[in-house]
Amino acid sequence: MLIPVLIVRDMAEALTFLTQVLDFDLVRSFPAEAPFYALLNRGTDELHINLTPDGRYGRASIIVLCDDVDGLFASFTARGLVAPTRANSPVHEGPLDQTWGTREVYIDDPSGNTFIFQQR
User: Do you know which InterPro entries this protein is assigned to (predicted)?
Assistant: First the structure.
């Protein structure tokens, strides 16, 4: 099992986005009163986030395998996700069939880390 650790610039902002938009559940944060580290789950997926406000955040991409990328994207937008308009990256705007045989959508968290939801 691999567990990614994403570096974030603002813990409250990251937790709000991950739990309210991307449907992760907060398992634990350390320390509870002013967390700098948190563990989250989404189904069988586990994700850790670490607060690092010194500018080293937002440089990671992770792939999340799923069975219905269109359904997930619809649920994320219903929860408040606003897909950006990017002239050179239509895969950020909505699910897209890739030439390598997957259907994907890219979602950036508020710190700039990219979640690639991929349907194979």
Answer: Glyas_Bleomycin-R_OHBP_Dase, Glyas_Fos-R_dOase_dom, VOC_core
Please give the CATH topology (third level) of the domain spanning 5-119.
Answer: 2,3-Dihydroxybiphenyl 1,2-Dioxygenase; domain 1 (3.10.180)
Q: What pLDDT is stored for residue 62 in this prediction? A: 96
84-116: b or e for each residue (b if 16 or more CB lie within 10 Å)? eeeeeeebbeebeeeeeeebbbbbbbbbebbbb
Contact by Cβ (8 Å): 87, 75:
no
Domain spans of the chain, in order of start: 5-119
How confident is the model at residue 75, as a pLDDT?
97
Per 3-state DSSP, what percentage of the chain is helix, strand, and coil (rounded to 5)?
20, 35, 45
**Using CA atoms, how far apart are residues 94 and 107, in angstroms rounded to an integer?**
9
Alpha-carbon span 74 to 70, nearest angstrom: 6
What is the value of pTM for the model shown? 0.93
Q: Which two tokens stand for residue 73?
A: 């994207």
